[in-house]
Amino acid sequence: MTAYKQGDPxxxxxxxxxxxxHKLRKGQQELVDGLLPQIGLPEEGPLTARxxxxxxxxxxxxxxxxxxxxxxxxxxxxxxxxxxxxxPFLNGVAQALVHVxxxxxxxxxxxxxxxLEQLRRVPDGTLSFVYLxxxxxxxxxxxxxxxxxxxxxxxxxxxxxxxxGEFRVATDHPVYLDWALMVxxxxxxxxxxxxxxxxxxxxxxxxxGWIDTRYAAKARREGRRPYYLRYRRR
Length: 234
Known about the structure:
Blueprint lengths: L25 H14 L9 H5 L5 E5 L5 H9 L4 E6 L2 H13 L5 E5 L2 H5 L7 E7 L17 H10 E11 L2 H11 L2 H4 L2 E3 L18 H8 L5 E7 L1
Parallel strand pairs: 1-2, 1-4, 2-3, 4-5
Antiparallel strand pairs: 5-7, 6-7
């Protein structure tokens, strides 16, 4: 499959990038070998709160959690909620497992692999939050269809969110910001979501309960401003 295949990420079956960047430390490898199988997603069946956590509780889903800082922060903040985090890269998964162990987070489930494959398994209308924080911007125009912010993924996210549920997006790349705003202003998505914003500068400051990831911190160090978008499911 080539980079020029027509269609959004829901139609692409190739993961672009490396699965790992450096060798894991011994402790991280032990967590991948021991803890990940314990808190990984089941191979079959719908991903419901009762199946994953044994009760009915609000559910959060993070697409590409990087090192897991945001995932762990939110899970610690909301211990009676359930969190699913998906990340394709081994080093990020290992770092997230460290957070889970050190903070004793019993309300987190982690999948190493494609987030959209797992999101499909979530019953429609059950998620309270979906997070897409600092995704790869793929800034070249010819790579636009690789971006997670495309019609197919957004339609799926809309289907999985309950009415009043929230889709949160963060980026520090102006090209991706423009693209995300354009996608979400399409009629099909305006019918699905309300943009939660008070004024024209409302996307410049973090909402409450939202911490910066390592990518946001790196952007600030390098002189780039993170942008924060919130969309509420109708």
